[in-house]
Amino acid sequence: MNSHNVHAFSGVIGETNNVSQSFLDKYQVLINQPNIKLFITQNVPSHYYNVDDTSFLWTGGSKAIKDNLTFDYTQEDSKFVYIKFVNNVYSIVSDHYSKIPLLYVKQGNTIYFSTSLKFLLEICNSTTLDINYNGLSVFYHYGVNSFEQGLIRNLKLLSGGSLLTYSNESISISKYFDITKLKTNWRNTKRAHENTLLIDDILLRSTTKTVQNYDSIGIALSGGVDSGYLAQKISESKREFSAYTIGYEDGYNEFERIDYLANILKFKTEKIILSPKEIIDNYLKVSAYSSFPLGFNNSILNFIYKKAASDGVDVLFDGDGADRLFLGMNKFLQLRKFLKFYNRTKVLKLNSLTLSLLKMVNHPSGKKLQFYFKKLNHGIPFYGERILSDKITFDSNFEVALNDLILPNELKNLDKNIDKWLFFSLFSIYYTPTFFFHTPYELQLKHGLVSNPEFWSDEMVQLALSIPTEQKLYNKTTKKVLRDAAKIKIDNGYWGLTKIGLQNSYKYIKTKDFGKDFINSYVELVKRTDEYHYLVENTPDGDIDPERLIRYYIWKENMFQS
To answer: 262, 242 in Cβ contact below 8 A?
Structure first.
């Protein structure tokens, strides 16, 4: 296995003699002391700093940290990995939200860590892949990579705001930044209009601060609210920029909306049209160096990164993660309806009767409603990431065990009477990096780019958590307060244009013969795996969709290719 095609940072603490000389010769050694060694695969000075003789800072290209000599990780909300080593006590610190992935594993008296799985496996000299079936269950049933339950046994991912300390051959992990303890007014009593003004002010200040650090600016523009709002903020910051947008061959695109916005804000546009073959070929290519099973929508960002890099762009904005902060997905409206329905039946003491009636509904929607009713009845917290099959059946032992795997300790320790939507939001924020930050981070570094999740400043996250749910989900409108904030300074004509939303790239290739053949071939391969049969045998309904394991199969296949 060779990690030269991966741009990453890695380290070894403890018995560093385990690291082979050939490895030391192959990569750039930044710190070389008896009990700690730090490496990078490619020497890009702007990506790291020696803060002082006992600490090191990896930024992955982010220029948000201007003065590393006064660096304070408790106050810094940009992306970083910070290492401190004093008197045989070694500390590894993740940024507040895990904007940079940091994997680690303890073997004997040694701890290995890296921002890249391939780099980590190489430094550990691992030649076999011992699958963690708990992590596989979490991945299949929730579609996320768990921090505590990784796909490889004993390998974990350091969650946001964590301080890992290694001393006397033992590891301890504490939270120096805990989203459940943010100093925020959980009961935001401001009117919706006041909150829209606050959102607008925070986003402008953070965007203006970011663009000052870069020469050439780009944005991945979808034609929707979040990225369009960011484009307006870059323009308001008095900087020129280019926008990159994707459409599908013979498919729907948002080019009319992009052109309208470009005319208002005076930015350049680059439109990239993709065919099913291009999407699939690119997916297989970029999966080869991805540390996690790669989502198809994340993979097509590679086309934007490649074009932006060729244009000399050094920072690329995007609106990723805003939907999690402001409840912007349509399924959240459905979940709100269900929660209101459930609460009403509970108050009227009609819960049992309603469940009996739902059992008579021979339709997937009826089964899913039964599932959620039983889940809440068993005291399992309310969150919407659980992926349900049409044949879903509720097994209390299985769901309690699965819930125990997916929930981090900081959420398990919350008051049982916490507002359900607040818990829902905290859960979403905790897992947002695994959906939106980690794999794009690796793709961007491959092209020498850096992104800045502009909605994810501490100030914005605190505000988003405090805003009442009814200001986010209003009638049939998602993220209402964010939409209203975006409308303050964007021409009304933009909002009147047709908005359907770019089709998920995986769903798009499923409509084409070339894509169908690709999917069917991998479905057959998945069905032959031990992992597929494990899930069939260990899931109550046994209804396992092999398509949901295709990206896992491709990821595993790539991990041990040279």
So the answer is: no
Contact indicator for 236, 204 with CB cutoff of 8 Å? yes
Q: Where are the alpha helices (DSSP H) in 348-395?
A: 351-358, 364-377
Is the distance from CB of 441 to CB of 100 less than 8 angstroms?
A: yes
Q: What is the pLDDT along the chain (562 residues), one digit of tens a residue?
A: 455 567 889 999 998 888 888 888 888 888 988 899 999 987 776 788 888 889 999 998 888 776 566 789 999 989 999 999 999 999 999 999 999 999 999 998 899 999 999 999 988 877 677 999 999 999 999 999 999 999 999 999 999 999 999 998 899 999 999 988 875 556 688 999 999 999 999 999 999 999 998 999 999 998 889 999 999 999 999 999 999 999 999 877 889 899 999 999 999 999 999 999 999 999 999 999 899 999 999 999 999 999 999 999 999 999 989 999 999 998 899 999 999 998 999 899 898 888 888 888 888 888 888 999 999 999 898 887 889 988 888 999 999 999 999 999 999 998 888 888 999 999 999 999 999 999 999 999 989 898 878 999 999 999 999 999 999 999 999 999 999 999 999 988 888 877 766 778 999 999 999 999 999 999 999 999 999 999 999 999 899 999 999 999 999 998 866 4
Classified by CATH at the fold level, domain 192-327+431-511 comes out as: Rossmann fold (3.40.50)
Shared fold status for 9-177 and 192-327+431-511? no
Chain-centroid distance of CA 373 in Å reads 28
Domain range summary for the chain, segments of one domain joined by +: 9-177, 192-327+431-511, 332-408+420-424, 519-559
**Given this structure, which CATH class describes domain 9-177?**
alpha beta
| Token pair for 442 | 């690796």
Contacts of 22 (CB under 8 A, 6+ apart): none
E strand segments, 108-180: 110-114, 156-157, 162-167, 170-175
Please give the structure tokens belonging to residue 380.
């399992």
Closest CA to 196 of 471, 492, 465, 475: 471
Beta partners for residue 174, in sequence order: 163
